[in-house]
Amino acid sequence: MRRRTIVLIFAVLIVLNLGLASDQTNWPQFRGPGGLGIAKDGQKLPVEFDQANNMIWKSEVSKGNSSLCVWGDRIFLTGLTDKKLETMCLDRKSGKILWRQSVTPEKIERVHPINSPATPTPTTDGERVFVYFGSYGLLCYDFEGREIWKRTLLPPLSMYGTAASPIMAGDYLIFCNDQKTGSYLEAIDPESGKTVWKTQREKFPAAWSTPMLWKNNGVDELVIYGIWWMTGYDLETGIERWSVPGFTDEPCITPVNGEGLVFTTSYNMKNNPEVIGLPEFDELLEEYDKDNDGELTREEIKENQSILSRYDADGEGDHPLRGFFNFLDVDRSGKITVKEWSKMISFLNSFKQENALMAIRPSSDPEEEPEVVWKHNYGVPECPSPLYYDGRIYMIKNGGIVSCLVAETGELKYQDKLRVGGPYYSSPVVGDGKIYVPSARGVITVFEPGDDLKVLARNDLKERMMATPAIVDGTIYVRTENNVYAFGFSK
Q1: pTM of this prediction?
Q2: For residue 8, is it within any domain?
Q3: Which CATH number do you get for residue 36?
Q4: Strand, helix or coil at 347?
Q5: Is 320 part of a structural domain of the chain?
Q6: Packing angle of the helix pair 281-288, 338-349 (nearest 10 deg)
Q7: 168, 162 contact by CB (below 8 A)
Q8: Which of 303, 320, 349 is the last residue of a domain?
Q9: Residue 16's pLDDT is what?
Q10: b/e per residue 336-366 (b: at least 16 CB within 10 A)
């Protein structure tokens, strides 16, 4: 009996050790465990790295914006090659591509120039990997690349293309398909691909935000950031539990949680203080009115680059006047007048959504209204999700503007520049007491968490970066436009 007890204890210890090891080698969805962007403690990560310094391996992959999904010795990502949508599996230790599976849709969905038909990040339950392509639908493979099930779907009605990623939540694969019409949230059995429950979201047009799972006073809850609303759903039933209005009409960031609060940003280009605002009509006339008649023709304004610009974004997302010409030329005279220009001002003034980082305390009682605990209106990013870590909230936006606030109160500790400009789409992640922030220009800035900005390194990979890094087992995995890199110390 004693020997049997010892054997049983030994077996339990092995299982526990394997579980701990597994925890260290998983980054199962967009932004890792829980979508929070926080790596497990106990990992030693490099501060300085590039192709000549602390690089373990480099692997060329097809182009795409999906971030990396890591489980055990496998890395999963997606890409596009010759109109084929690819799911790729890399060996985590060597970077070798173990397998590729591709599908060819009837038509590749229309996407924004900075987006990609391969933007949603894969997710995994440890046995299967799940991918979503807006042009094709949902696919499930085993870890050897064998197709288990698929669900072909029509391309969603979305002016920018798809971006929201599926996630594993409890026993379910969660898929949120917000589009112009027919939006829904669905829980899927990961083994069979069959629907467990499905909740209609008709009042929510197209959005690009990945769902968040958290525990709200003991209840497993999905938080969905849709157009104009933040909504919480019961994970087991799909029933709506709470909602908060006033959010952006183009949500693409993923909420995070901490201190019993949900944190999210709402970006409004109209009243974002870092945006270069509308010019006066007289300014446009001075620059473009060649015949001095006090009106602007299509030919005269064709050289205009933008009338509304994102700060330090290398021109990405600019709004040239020619794009609004038909909208403004109300009388179809072929000219824009000062009176017609007022329509542009009225259009922007109609944007009533918040421009703020907000902390929300959802109620545990569906009969009670959620509370917006605090708001902060400066440094609000459009694409990068916020990072909650050690009682602080960090935001990164175009121009490398970083903000640090007390999570509980919203007190601003600092707002500063990383001294790495340009647009930012990747979300910050943290590991080994260091925050890693990639810029689209290809520089990963490393800085210390805390109430003062202390930059440790600026690592220039000289490649465009859209994806968010993954941190696993002492290694930071980075996807650039053409490659996946593993950076860490030799083992």
Answers
A1: 0.91
A2: no
A3: 2.140.10.10
A4: helix
A5: yes
A6: 130
A7: no
A8: 349
A9: 38
A10: bbeebbeebeeeeeeeebbbbbbbbebeeee
Using CA atoms, how far apart are residues 231 and 219, in angstroms rounded to an integer?
15
| Residue found under tokens 């901490």 | 258
Query: 227: number of CA atoms within 13 Å, CB side?
Result: 17
Most distant CA pair in the chain, distance: 101
Closest C-alpha among 121, 143, 141 to residue 132: 121
The CA distance from 463 to 444, in Å, is 11
What are the phi and psi torsion angles at 53 (to 5°)?
-145, 120
CATH code of the domain containing 340: 1.10.238
pLDDT number for residue 333 = 94
The candidate with the shortest Cα–Cα distance to 68, out of 143, 133, 141, 123, is 123
Domain boundary among 299, 332, 349: 349
Q: What are phi and psi of 93, to 5 degrees?
A: -85, -30
- Select from 31, 94, 115, 95 the least CA-distant residue to 436: 31
Measured CA to CA, the distance from residue 27 to residue 430 in angstroms comes to 13
Q: Which amino acid is at 185?
A: L
Mean pLDDT, each 10-residue run in order, the chain (491 residues): 40 37 73 95 94 97 97 97 96 97 94 93 98 97 97 90 95 94 94 96 88 94 93 96 90 94 90 81 94 94 89 89 93 94 88 89 84 94 96 96 97 97 97 97 98 98 97 97 94 64
